[in-house]
UniProtKB/TrEMBL annotation:
Its EC number is 2.7.13.3. Keywords: ATP-binding, Kinase, Nucleotide-binding, Transferase, Two-component regulatory system. It comes from Solirubrobacter ginsenosidimutans. GO terms for biological process: phosphorelay signal transduction system. It is an enzyme of class 2 (transferase). This is histidine kinase. InterPro entries: HATPase_C_sf (IPR036890), HATPase_dom (IPR003594), Sensor_HK_TwoCompSys (IPR050482), Sig_transdc_His_kin-like_C (IPR004358). The keyword Ion transport does not apply. One of its GO terms (molecular function) is protein histidine kinase activity. Pfam families: HATPase_c (PF02518). Residues 68-158 form the Histidine kinase/HSP90-like ATPase domain.
Amino acid sequence: MDDLRALLSRLATELTDALNDLRALSRGLPPAVLAQDGLSPALRSLARRSAVPVDLKIELDTERFEEPVEVAVYYVASEALTNAAKHAYASRAEVSVKHRDGWLELTVSDDGRGGANASHGSGLAGLAERVEAVGGTLQIESAPDAGTAIRAQLPARRPSDARLTTTPP
């Protein structure tokens, strides 16, 4: 009985967190865990709540980046995981984020049915716009029956960095 109570308590907490994230999204605000704790905790929370099991790999040498960059990374990962479950019927996904040479590199891949196309819906096109708005690039690889890989490269500016316009490697 104690195990059931613990499970129900955990589920209630996760549902409350998801509802709070949805409310923040509807107001154009970043999710609370992202705003308060940063990218790594936010991605861990996202992976825990995903409908698809997620292998999460985080290689960051700093806790915080500029808010628009963190928000873009979070929403690319969130949309990609939602698509993996909802459209690709994936059984697994992997989220990898690395900080290298002044860039954040995010890759979200799944083992789903593939065939994703940014021109067939506003979700992926919106992600590309969000990433480009902070000076990044987004690539989608999604052959039919071969899963999907979404890669984003974004400038890894810290909150105190001056705004720089550069091109990803």
